[in-house]
Design brief:
five-stranded mixed β-sheet, 40% strand, alpha+beta, Alpha-Beta Plaits, globular
């Protein structure tokens, strides 16, 4: 089990980035959440299989069409198994 907090910078607001990430996380069977942060970044927490976390990090670096990712900050955290699914939160 691995848990990461990811902060994604660039043109990531208003381009369906959160919905793209939610879809990919659900496909990979990851739990956690994604949201827009107050500083115009997208923040996400993912928990799950380490290989699948690596795959979602790749998706975060690419983003959906119309987005332009300029930076992805990855913060390793202690797994807590506190999520039952993956959601978009406000």
């Amino acid at each position: 089990m691995r848990r990461v907090r990811i902060l994604i910078s660039g043109n990531v607001i208003g381009v369906s980035f959160r919905y793209f990430i939610k879809e990919k996380a659900l496909e990979l069977g990851l739990t956690g959440y994604v949201r827009n942060s107050e500083d115009k970044k997208v923040e996400a927490i993912f928990e799950g299989n380490p290989e699948k976390i690596n795959k979602i990090i790749h998706h975060c670096r690419q983003g959906p069409k119309g987005s332009k990712v300029t930076d992805v900050k990855i913060i390793e955290e202690q797994p807590k198994s506190s999520f039952k699914s993956f959601n978009i939160i406000k």
